[in-house]
Amino acid sequence: MTFEELGLVPPLLKALAAEGYTTPTPIQLQAIPFALAGRDVQGIAQTGTGKTAAFALPILQRLAANPKRVGPGGCRVLVLAPTRELANQISESFRIYGKFMNLKVTVMFGGVPKGRQSRAMAMGVDVLVATPGRLMDHMSDRTVRLDQVEMLVLDEADHMLDLGFIVPIRKIVSQIPAQRQTLFFSATMPNEIGGLAGAMLKNPAQVAVAPVATTAERVEQHVIMLETSRKRAVLFDLLMGPAAGRTLVFTRTKHGADRVVRYLEESGLPATAIHGNKSQGQRERALSDFRGGKCRVLIATDIAARGIDVDGVTHVINYDLPNVPESYVHRIGRTARAGATGTAISLCDGEERAFLRSIEKLIRSKVPVMVPPGQAAAQAPRARAA
Ligand code: AMP
């Protein structure tokens, strides 16, 4: 699925291409169609999942489709964020994605003088991103008014609760017309947040993606830098040694999966694959062989792996690195289920280094480099001889 297929308009597609985004992330795939259709959305997603674009893109599109001017101090979209850092990031994202549209975006938060913020609001804006405390100040100063808001976003609602912002938020929301679209995002949905969502949303579409950080923290991760041509042999060595347990191997394509199965079988290691070209029966057989231990290596593509739940996966090997960083987190989360720990090893060739960099940005840490099995021993004598 591409951004184009999601129904985004050319100015947004151009901005996304300029950012180098080729594929929507899972939260974007789920939320954008509902938001574009004008539905309220309740989303469970953490930072790092691409959630900002999941609300910013449909909002920009809806604004541009129906240009309108608002009066002094007014805004058409209000985005509430708990911290100044997040508010800044969100406003920056709106500017980047909206750079080929003629829309006005401004941000306000505490700890800096109010004058410039008031002046920015004087002519009205399309999008106002604000922290609740400073917004309340401006509301009582009458430098901001919310009676023209058409769309409201609440981001990191659970964090708002931790910071004691629930009462201010209820006050702010009471000033916004009931006839509006509301998009509500939170990393977790404890009771109090569920209650707040219930009060703010009308018949919301529910969307959710797996938490990022917790999974990434539980899994021991390694990356092996190598040439593409060596991947098969290194995979075989891994499966015979360090990854001798119940191992899930991910490839980017269906044909890639079949080629890996063929190579492993020719090398005497039974393996099976699940992907979109297999019949339902073949997929079920592959899964039950893997679950039952008849076959300890399962090769899968991202989409085929989505619904499967197998306990006791000890290793995940990324034969190819995914081009959507969030897929990496989903993949490695297949090991370390239910609080267990697991190991993930990625094979990265020259062309995949950019993917590795995006993954490391997403998980906010460097994946340690590992020497391929067999090579450490092979290198040692040479090193001594030299
Ligand atoms: P967020 O969860 O909104 O904080 O976004 C996390 C990071 O992913 C940000 O650095 C975004 O620029 C980036 N990002 C968002 N959507 C995509 C996408 N579809 N493809 C690649 N990167 C993305």
CATH superfamily of the largest domain: P-loop containing nucleotide triphosphate hydrolases
Gyration radius (Cα, Å) is: 24 Å
Percentage of residues in strands: 15-25%
Helix content: 40-55%
CATH topology grouping of the largest domain: Rossmann fold
Small-molecule components bound: adenosine monophosphate
Distance between the termini: 53 Å
CATH class of the largest domain: Alpha Beta
Overall mean pLDDT stands at 90
Low-confidence stretches: 377-386
- Indicate how many domains the architecture comprises: 2
Can you count the beta strands?
13
Helix tally?
Answer: 17
Order of SSEs: HHEHEHEHEHEHHEHEHEHEHEHEHEHEHH
**Spatial order of strands in the largest sheet:** 3-4-2-5-6-1-7
User: How does the overall form come out from the CA principal axes?
Assistant: elongated
Secondary structure elements and their pairing?
Blueprint: H1 10-19, H2 26-36, E1 41-44, H3 51-65, E2 75-80, H4 84-97, E3 105-108, H5 115-121, E4 125-130, H6 132-141, E5 151-154, H7 157-162, H8 166-174, E6 181-186, H9 191-200, E7 205-208, H10 213-218, E8 219-225, H11 231-240, E9 247-250, H12 254-266, E10 272-274, H13 280-292, E11 297-300, H14 302-305, E12 315-318, H15 325-332, E13 342-348, H16 353-363, H17 375-385
Parallel strand pairs: 1-6, 1-7, 2-4, 2-5, 3-4, 5-6, 8-13, 9-11, 9-12, 10-11, 12-13
Helix pairs in contact: 2-3, 3-4, 15-16
